[in-house]
Amino acid sequence: MTATLDESTVRPATGSAVRLAGVHKTFGAVTALRGVDLDVAPGEFVCLLGASGCGKTTLLNIIAGLDEPSAGELELSSGRPAVMFQEAALMPWLTAAANVELPLRLAGVSRKERKHRTVELLDLVRLSGVGGKRPHELSGGMRQRVALARALASALHTGNDTAGSSAPSLLLMDEPFSALDAITRDVLQAELLRVWRSTGAAVVFVTHDVREAVRLGQRVVLLSSRPGRVVEEWQVGDLPAAEEAETVAVINERLREVISSHAAA
Ligand SMILES: Nc1ncnc2c1ncn2[C@@H]1O[C@H](COP(=O)(O)OP(=O)(O)OP(=O)(O)O)[C@@H](O)[C@H]1O
Question: Which of 58, 86, 262 to mutate to test the pocket of ligand 1 (most atoms within 8 A of CB)?
Answer without folding.
Answer: 58
